[in-house]
Write a structure and sequence with these properties.
- The complex is a heterodimer of chains A (172) and B (422).
- Chain A has one domain: Up-down Bundle (Four Helix Bundle (Hemerythrin (Met), subunit A)).
- With 172 residues, chain A is mainly α.
- A two-stranded antiparallel sheet of chain A has the order 1-2.
- The two termini of chain A are 17 Å apart.
- In chain A, helix 2 packs across helix 4 and helix 5 crosses helix 6.
- Helices cover 47% and strands 9% of the residues of chain B.
- With 422 residues, chain B is an alpha/beta fold.
- Chain B has a seven-stranded mixed sheet.
- The model of chain B has no long low-confidence stretch (mean pLDDT 90).
- In chain B, helix 4 crosses helix 5, helix 8 packs across helix 11 and helix 11 packs across helix 13.
- Classes of the chains: A mainly alpha (172), B alpha/beta (422).
């Protein structure tokens, strides 16, 4: 099974291929950027899975909904009428999951959304969205330098979450 | 003081002078009692030496642990290996020295060509020499030295080599000796009763080379069973899965593990005879035998590796399994499930799924992590305890990849909650 380390290494490999390619660098830079994003996604989803595998009563219902990526619904009929319960799948945004994890377990006192790390993450997210939702009028301006920056951002976000949730640094 | 040459030693005025100077410079028991000293000559390399007794307080000031093979060469490095001051054998040595143990056969060379303040260059027994130096202030006893004189480079090298060659005694052998000395045959008899050992068989000298239970493993099984039993009495069945458990690994080597000793002393005449621990041992042996057999019989599905065959005997597996066996003694339905051997399938031929365990890695593990049930680390013991605990929830469990992932996720999640839940 692939993990974040695999995705990061594939991303780097694609950047190296882009460096060697004289003409059409985009064909390597696009997968590289997606893989940098997937590395974060894989890492965060697996942490969410760690928590969702715990006994149910260790989390509030709305927290479990987020961990399981499911809706919390109000039941208006049947034996559970009048209660809240976990409903169908509702995918959550990656940045929301990160915010939940670091706020829940990180004991962070200071705002971090204005800091360079988060700005870089948002930049990566925007580029990833442009790749995944292409439009005629959206120009992709990708360079090897940018791809390296996104790879670094991916590693930094993973390290940031690891330090705040597991209270330890990981090696890549 | 009278100095004699042993009858097979060739007389040498130079050596006699050196020996005489040594006894003038260094206070020894022989010089204090004015008894004759005999000079010996090695039959192989012709080097000369005497045997004498020196007080720790005297020796500590003049021994040099940085002995050089070539004293004339300023570039020559110290020849001895680094001291292993954390090694259990050294720690025991130091503790004994502090209590007044006298050591013998410390091999030194009397050499004034470098570091003259410390003329006794240590070639053999550097740990003993260091231990007595440390203990000199509290236990000032005489220790036996073999002092060489006027060595040439070749003789010096040979003395260094022969002084540092020994038959390594394994911790397993120490364990076996100490076990018998302290508690007699109780542990061995228990293992024979269970059939971990056959009726006339003893524990192996070196566990890593055998495919048998060692003293350390048997002790760990017992300690964990009773630790689990005590813990299980304090937990409601519904809360069993909300904890991280940390099975214990007994110490090995030159001292008896304190937790094991505590149990053996507490149990008195009824040592290891209660029904629960005998049944647990038998069930564990069933698991081990099935694992062994399945790996051996399925060469096309799993490599017939010793590590796979003996997966149940890996420290972390054995400790975790026995801990859970104790923990569930008061939770009978789950105990029965725990005692059931995990199911196998066409893709998973062995009950412990050794290959999958070895390939296992969680995101929080370093790239060098070697998989579940391969080491005895705390992390591994915690994880495997959760594997067996989760297995005890049903009677039809297969230890497949998904199951292992969920069990480890639970441990990681619980650990994180414990650290940072707000």
């Amino acid at each position: 099974m692939l993990n974040y380390r695999n995705y990061l290494s594939y991303s780097e490999k694609y950047i190296q291929l882009a460096e060697e390619e004289p003409l059409d660098k985009l064909k390597f830079l696009i997968p590289s950027i997606l893989l940098s994003w997937i590395a974060i996604e894989s890492f965060i989803n697996n942490i969410m899975d760690d928590f969702s595998s715990l006994p149910e009563d260790l989390f509030e219902l709305h927290e479990r909904g987020l961990l399981l990526e499911k809706k919390v619904i109000f039941v208006d009929h049947g034996s559970d009428m009048g209660k809240f319960k976990i409903g169908q799948t509702e995918y959550k945004r990656l940045d929301e999951k990160i915010l939940f994890l670091i706020t829940k377990f990180g004991n962070l006192n200071k705002p971090y959304k204005g800091e360079a790390l988060w700005q870089n993450f948002e930049d990566l997210r925007d580029t990833r969205n442009k790749i995944l939702h292409p439009r005629r009028n959206i120009e992709l301006e990708l360079t090897v330098k940018k791809a390296y920056k996104y790879l670094e951002t991916s590693k930094n976000i993973i390290q940031f979450v690891s330090t705040n949730v597991w209270h330890k640094k990981i090696s890549f | 003081m009278k100095i004699l040459f042993e009858k097979s030693a060739k007389k040498s005025k130079g050596i006699e002078r050196l020996v005489s100077r040594f006894f003038k410079d260094v206070s020894t028991l022989e010089s204090e009692l004015d008894v004759p000293v005999v000079i010996f000559q090695d039959g192989v390399n012709n080097s000369y030496y005497v045997k004498c007794q020196i007080l720790a307080s005297v020796a500590s000031k003049i021994i040099d642990l940085n002995a050089k093979i070539n004293p004339e060469d300023a570039e020559s490095f110290r020849a001895n290996r680094e001291l292993m001051l954390e090694h259990t054998t050294y720690l025991k040595m130091e503790s004994d020295a502090l209590k007044g143990r006298e050591f013998n056969d410390i091999i030194v060379e009397y050499n004034l060509k470098y570091d003259k303040d410390k003329p006794l260059k240590v070639w053999g027994g550097q740990h003993r020499a260091y231990a007595i130096s440390k203990a000199a202030n509290s236990a000032n006893h005489y220790h036996g030295f073999k002092v060489y004189f006027n060595l040439n480079k070749n003789q010096r090298t040979e003395v260094a080599l022969i002084s540092n060659t020994n038959m390594a005694v394994s911790d397993d052998t120490f364990d076996r000796m100490l076990e018998e000395t302290t508690f007699g045959n109780t542990l061995k008899k228990w293992c024979q009763k269970i059939r971990f050992l056959s009726l006339k068989e003893d524990f192996p000298d070196v566990g890593s080379r055998s495919e048998k239970i060692t003293v350390k493993l048997a002790r760990s099984f017992i300690v964990n069973y009773y630790k689990g039993l005590d813990k299980g009495k304090t937990i409601k069945t519904d809360d069993l899965d909300k904890n991280i458990y940390e099975p214990y690994v007994t110490e090995t080597g030159v001292s008896i593990d304190p937790e094991y000793a505590k149990i053996m002393i507490k149990k008195g005449n009824k040592k290891l005879s209660d029904k629960g621990i005998i049944e647990a041992g038998e069930k564990f042996l069933d698991l081990h035998k099935t694992q062994y057999k399945k790996v051996k019989e399925s060469p096309k599905k799993i490599k017939n590796r010793k590590a796979y065959r003996n997966k149940a005997l890996v420290v972390s597996v054995l400790c975790s399994w026995s801990y859970v066996a104790g923990l569930l003694q008061n939770h009978k339905a789950r105990l029965l499930n725990h005692y059931k051997i995990p199911k196998t399938t066409s893709k998973i031929p062995d009950p412990l799924n050794a290959e999958e365990m070895s390939n296992f890695k969680h995101d929080s593990d370093p790239p060098t992590y070697r998989g579940l049930g391969t080491r005895q680390s705390t992390k591994d013991r915690q994880r495997l305890t959760q594997v067996f605990l989760a297995k005890s929830l049903t009677d039809t469990c297969i230890l497949d990849k998904r199951f292992l992932q969920k069990a480890v996720s639970t441990v990681v999640g619980l650990t994180t909650l414990k650290k940072g839940y707000v």
